[in-house]
Amino acid sequence: MSNIPSDLKYTKDHEWVRVQDDVLVIGITDFAQGELGDIVYVEIDTLDEEVEAESAFGSVEAVKTVSELFMPLSGTVVEFNERLEDEPELVNTDPYGEGWIVKVRPNDMTDIEELLTAEAYGNEIGA
Fold first, then answer.
1. pLDDT of the residue at 127
2. Looking at the domain 9-110, which fold is it?
3. N or C end of the chain: which has fewer CB within 10 A?
């Protein structure tokens, strides 16, 4: 059973979003990290760039696969979790905490209402 915190929003692509002041903290869900397996590298090449909703903003590399990360809503990537450069396994061990991936300043904060609730995401993954 995946851990799906009720205070976050989710995408069908398995990203989670937490509102923190005027930025959004984004990572991948517990379900996604479990499906990927041991994460060995996180690549973000969009720092300080505006990324459209549903566009790739980076990737995570696991032992057996590479998976693109998709932007939940349009905005500018303002910070990358630099701890992931040396400790990519944080995405596995603490996906909703220390394993966050980027912070984004959204173009329109109200777009977050379009994302999935914890219950809807749970239904999406069959939890």
1. 87
2. OB fold (Dihydrolipoamide Acetyltransferase, E2P) (2.40.50)
3. N
